[in-house]
Structures are given as structure tokens and as C-alpha cells.
Hints:
Layout: H1 3-28, H2 30-46, H3 50-72, E1 80-86, E2 89-94, H4 95-107, E3 114-122, E4 125-135, H5 140-158, E5 163-174
Amino acid sequence: MNMLRRFLLCLISLVLLAVAGGLGICAFRPDSVKFSLERTLRVLSGGQHFWWLLLAAVVLLLLGALCLFVSLARKSAPTQVIIGKSEGGQVNISMEAVDNVVKRAALSVSGVKDVKSKLKAANNGVSVNLQVALPHDTNVPETATAIQTAVKEQLQTITGLAVAEVAIVVTSVEGRPTKVADTNYLGG
């Protein structure tokens, strides 16, 4: 947990403890509710604590906005993957380097025109999602299997990473079909 999240958690905890304490006192001493409300109304209507109240309101508003931002912020994807540990330390590889290996492996398969990749570090290795463009006269199942095999073998050979899966989506089939016969045959 980073420092900002710890700080926010601490502030939220203090505010919640204060509110819980106030509610607890009100539960045991119902007359304290009336006293607290009268005192609060007197302070608010008197105007003598205007700047302190405004400061408290701004701080609570900023704290709430910051908590909302931190809670909705996306967790960043890892930029490195550990590929080895030994007594001397550990060896990491950047996800960019892994992505280069994946793209080169996919493009090494005959007929692959274009490759877009998404990598995800998983507990059991790396998950690879590829979007590929193939020529029109390509056997898609055979080519997809060849891409999966090439990517998996290259990743394991070059980086030593285990490959959890290689998912492929064929996004386009490019080029013109080869002319086999006249398609205007009506039969008869």
C-alpha cells in the first residue's frame, strides 16, 4: 500500500472514530443530543467561528474527493516480470521486452501481416492476447496454432517465462482471393 493510501486510511479512520464516539455518547446520554445540536446551532448562527467552520468544510470536502479519486484510480499494470531468483539477487524483464519477443514470434509465422498484443502477468506466467491480420488465402486454424506455438516457444526459450495462454483474435483477412473459376456460373 503506498503512502498516500495509508495517509487517507488513517484520516478516514480518525473521522469515523470521532463520529462513532459521538454517536456512542448520544446513545447513552440522550440529553447530550439536544445539547450538541443547540451548541452547534449557536456556533453556526453566531458567526464567530466562520473561518474555522469553512476550513473544516474545505478539508473534509478535499479529503472526500481525494478518497473518491484514490478508490476509483486504476491499478497500474506491472512494468516488469521476475524471470529468475538466485542467491545473488533476481532477474527481471520489462513487459516491453516481452512484448517485442511476442510480436517478433508472431510475425515470424508465414502469412501474418500485422500483430497487436496485450500482455498480462499471471500467477502461473504470462497471458498473451493477440490481434492478427492474415492474408485472404490463409488457413486460419493452422496459422493460429502456428502463432500460438511460435509465441509460446520463443517466450520460454528467450525469457524463461511460463506462458499461461496465448489467445488469438483474427481481426482481418486482407487481400484479394485468388481467382479459381468464373463465379457468374448460373448452372443449368
